[in-house]
Design brief:
The protein has 399 residues and is of the alpha/beta class. 43% of the residues lie in helices and 15% in strands. The strands form two sheets. It has a seven-stranded parallel β-sheet, with helices on both faces. Strands 10-9-8-11-12-13 form a six-stranded parallel β-sheet, with helices on both faces. Helix 4 crosses helix 5 and helix 12 crosses helix 15. The radius of gyration is 22 Å and the shape is elongated.
């Protein structure tokens, strides 16, 4: 993959640097940053993806080989790649590399994602005199973290041209709790590419699950925020009435061993299957009847958008941006967080009405296509870039 280390002559198109910590086809912020950088109009913008922690040093990141897929997408879209080789939080040398690059390349837009990159991106962007600096928060979860709230309000919100929230609830909290000026904030939901078609692989046959067996699933990193334990307790409540039920937990993470032990303690190890990271997620989703998101907090989870793209009804917790995605009774059901009984009731309702569940799945697909496709979201961002660049006397030709 070509690095953006050397300077290039200007093309006449504004140069946009998308800044994120990691390169991955997993993780909401990482997926969205990759999607933005690869879907910006090449006629109107020159796109560069900057990854601060590359090559990866965290053990879990090393196991995530989805970066190969990410590189393929960058190459196919002709996006330049800028690694910063950041090894720890305050790695001044890495941020100096970015500062020099921004100045040398005369970058027009710096669009940062997640708290750390938002802070450093705002500082470095202003030092480099980048005309437009944007910060993008993906999950507002700063209760009990006064320093982060202070930096959000006094540094990021004041220094960036706009502070983007991925859900209406996140924007409300930024305004009411962090006391950020509403004019500095903007709600733009997440978006995902059109789902890849399922292949010829029969995931049910691979796992020994009959076609008529009810099959539920959840995709995501196994970390505390995702509250997979709630699903395990709900499985224990469902088991007596649904002895054939199967549940797939797709993903890996630091909570896996703990969750596997809990599964055994609850006696649901024959119902719940931990199948790890998969490269064939479209095939796995095609095999499911119902998808679940039982997180304690969320921004606008891409996994739920992927469920919707796969025509699945979704049972999700009523937190963060999930009410922006799920309309109860139309394309899924919403439940309180941390409530296994409520989750079991909602899943039982859909299991007993398979035709209604399929109708909800069809509505899910329709909403994703119309409102949350990556091209729809990138179109909104392109309009924002163009508007802000126009204010700085740098109009985007033809945009």
């Amino acid at each position: 993959m070509e690095s953006a280390a050397s300077s290039r002559p200007r093309t006449g198109r504004p140069r946009v640097v998308t800044l994120v910590d990691l390169l991955s086809a997993h993780g909401g912020a990482e997926q969205l940053a990759l999607g933005i950088s690869t879907h910006l109009s090449p006629e109107h913008f020159e796109s560069i993806l900057c990854v601060s922690r590359w090559p990866p040093t965290h053990p879990l990141a090393k196991r995530d080989t989805s970066w190969r897929l990410a590189f393929e997408q960058l190459e196919a879209a002709g996006v330049r790649f800028l690694p910063l080789r950041r090894r720890y939080k305050v790695d001044i040398a890495a941020w100096v590399r970015l500062l020099r690059f921004l100045r040398r390349e005369r970058v027009d837009v710096l669009h940062a994602h997640k708290f750390g990159s938002n802070v450093w991106g705002t500082i470095i962007g202003r030092l480099a005199r980048v005309p437009v600096v944007l910060a993008h928060e993906h999950t507002w979860s700063f209760e009990g973290q006064p320093l982060r709230r202070l930096l959000d309000r006094e540094l990021v919100a004041r220094g960036a041209d706009r502070f983007i929230a991925v859900s209406r609830e996140d924007r409300r909290r930024m305004i009411e709790i962090e006391r950020i000026d509403p004019q500095d904030t903007l709600f733009i939901p997440n978006g995902v590419p059109a789902p890849l078609p399922a292949g010829d692989k029969d995931v049910r046959a691979e796992l020994g699950i009959a076609p008529d067996v009810p099959l539920l699933g959840v995709v995501g990193l196994l970390r505390p925020q995702k509250a997979h334990h709630v699903l395990l307790h709900a499985a224990a409540k469902l088991a007596p009435d649904w002895p054939a039920l199967q549940i797939l937990i797709i993903g890996d993470g630091p909570e896996r061993e703990k969750l596997e032990r809990l599964s055994a303690e609850l006696g649901v190890q024959e119902i719940v299957r931990f199948i790890g990271l998969r490269t064939d997620v479209p095939d796995v989703l095609h095999a499911l009847d119902i998808a679940v998101c039982c997180s304690d907090f969320e921004g606008s989870p891409l996994s739920v958008l992927e469920y919707m793209g796969a025509s699945l009804p979704v049972v999700a917790t009523e937190v963060g941006g999930l009410p922006d995605l799920i309309e109860p009774g139309v394309n899924g059901l919403l439940i309180p967080p941390g409530d296994p009984a409520a989750l079991a009731v909602a899943l039982d309702q859909l299991l007993r009405d398979p035709e209604g569940a399929r109708a909800m799945g069809a509505h899910s697909k329709q909403r994703r296509d119309q409102e949350f496709d990556i091209d729809v979201i990138v179109g909104r961002l392109e309009s924002l870039y163009s508007e802000l660049l126009e204010q700085h006397g740098r109009p985007v030709s033809g945009a």
